[in-house]
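Sequence only, no structure available. Ideas?
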Amino acid sequence: MGFFWTIIVLVILLGLTWRFLGSYMAAVFEGRVRYLGWVEQPFYRLLRTGPGEEYEQTWKRYAGSAVVFSAAFLAFGYLLLRIQGSLPLNPQHLGAVPPALSFNTIASFVTNTNWQNYGGETTMSYFSQIGVLTVQQFVSAAVGVAAAIALVRGFSRRNSPTIGNFWVDMTRCLLYILLPVAFLAGILVVAQGGVQTLAGPVVIHDTLNGVTQTIPRGPASFMGPIMQFGTNGGGFFNVDLAHPFENPTALTNLLYIWLTLSIPFALTYTFGKMVKSVRHGAALLAAMAIIFACWVSFTAYAEHQNNPAVAAAGVHSTVGNTEGKEVRFGDTTSALFNVSMTQTSDGAVDSATDSYNPMGGFGALTGMMLGEVTPGGVGSGLYTILIFAIIAVFIGGLMIGRTPEYLGKKIQAREVKLAGLAALVMPLAVLILTAVAVSIHAGRAGPLNAGPHGFSEILYALTSQGNNNGSAMAGLSGNTAFYNVIGGIDMLIGRFGILIPALALAGSLASKNVVPASLGTFRTDNAMFIGLTIGVIIIIGGLTFFPAVSLGPIVEQLSHGKFF
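Reply:
I predicted one. C-alpha cells follow.
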C-alpha cells in the first residue's frame, strides 16, 4: 500500500474511531457500560472503594492515589528486575538487571515513557517482559486516562468538591478499553506472522559454512498491541517494531499506527460528550490534527530527499532516504510512523531515527517539544492540551477585553498559575538536564557523533524522556550510570510535574459554578479559538526550545548548504 492510500485508510479509520470509541469511552466513565460489573466488584471490595458517591475523592486524594499507586509499582518493579535471575520464565538464563538500569527502566514504564537503555532480548527475561513491563504498559496507560477523565469532570461538574474515584476510573479503563482491544489486536498480529512463544531462543547450525546462530524469540506479539494502544512504545526486541517478529507486515504496521493514535484522538470526542458540547471536542481535535498533518507533511518530504551523507559519497537514490529503514515500509511511511510515535507519548520505531535526514530528525524532535499534545499520549495528550487551551482562553480574553471563560468556568488567577506551571515544568526540566549533560564529561561521553549531531542526540534523549515519549536517535550510549539516573529523574518530573497540576486544575474547576454565556464571552468552539490554541502550543514549544534546536538539527542541515 502506497503512502497516499495509507493516509486515506488511516484517516477513515481514525474518523470512525473518534466517533465510536470516543462515545464508548464516555459511556464507560459515566458508568453506563457495566457488562463486566461482576469482574469490577472484587477489585472494589479489595480496595474498599466503589463507584458510589460516598467513595468520591477530592483532587488531593485522587492525586495521592495516583502517586501512591505509581510509587508502589516503582518499588515493586525495581525489586523484581533486581532479582530477575531467581525468577521463573527465564530460558535465556539472564541475571539481575544492574541497579541504575533497573531504576531507569521501571521509572520509564511507570511513567508511560518506555525509554529503553537495554536490548530486550539480551537483558530481560520472559517473566520481566510479561510480569513487570507489559503489566506497566496497561496500568500506566490507565493512570493517564484516569487523570484526563478527572480533568474533564472538572469542566462538567458544578460546585463539586470531588472529581471522581481514581481506583474506579483506572479499573474501568483496564477492563472495558485496554484489555479487550489489546487482546483482539494481539490475535491479528499473530495471524500475520508475529511470534508468540515461551519456548526460548532457537539455535540454528548452518552445515554449509559451520556457523551457529542463536535467534531470540518470545511472547512478543501480544506485547506489541498494548505498547501501541497505550502509547507506551517499549518493544520486546532491541530494534522494536522494525523487527519482523513484532511487526511482520505492512498491515501490522498500519495497525500499530492506528492503535497509537486512536485513544488520544478519540478522547476529544469523549471530552465533548461529557461536557455536553461535541463542538468543543471537535475544536481540540482540529488543533491536534492540523499540527499533526503539518509535521507528517514536512517530515515525509524531508525523508523523500537523498541522504546528504550518502549523496556526498556519490550514490544518488530515486526513492528517498532509505538509510536505516525497512524496505517493506519505505521512506515516507516510515516518516508517518515516526511522527505518529513522537507526537504521541509512544516512542516506538520501525526505522532508525539516527539515520534520518537532519530535517527529518527535526520533525521527530520538535514534535515532542510541542508538549505531546498533537495528539499526545493516552490521557496525557488530552489533559495537556486542555492546559494549553486554558492559557489560550486567558490570553484571548485579555486581548479582546472579555472575561476568560472556558465551558462556562471562569479562568482566574489560580487556574492560570496551575496551567502555567504545568506548561513550563517539562521545558525547564529538559533544558536544565541537557545543560548538565553537555557540561560534564559523563554526559559528553554518551553521543557517538561529534558536533551538532552529537548535541542533537543528547537533546533528543532528554526531550524524549522528559515528554514521556521513549523514542531514541540510537546514537547515544545511554546505558551508563549518569544517563540512567538523570533520565529516570527526567521521566518522573515529566509525568507527575504535569499530572498533579492537571488534577489540581480539575479540583479548582469542579468547585466553580457555570457562568451563562453572554455577548462578552470569548467563544471556545470556533476557528479563532483553534488558531489561538495552535499558536500557544507552537509559541511555548518554539520559543522555549528554538535556541537549543538551532544548535542541533538546524545548524546540521544548514551545513549542507540548504534548508531542505
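The chain has two domains: 24-263, 279-558.
Hope that gets you unstuck.
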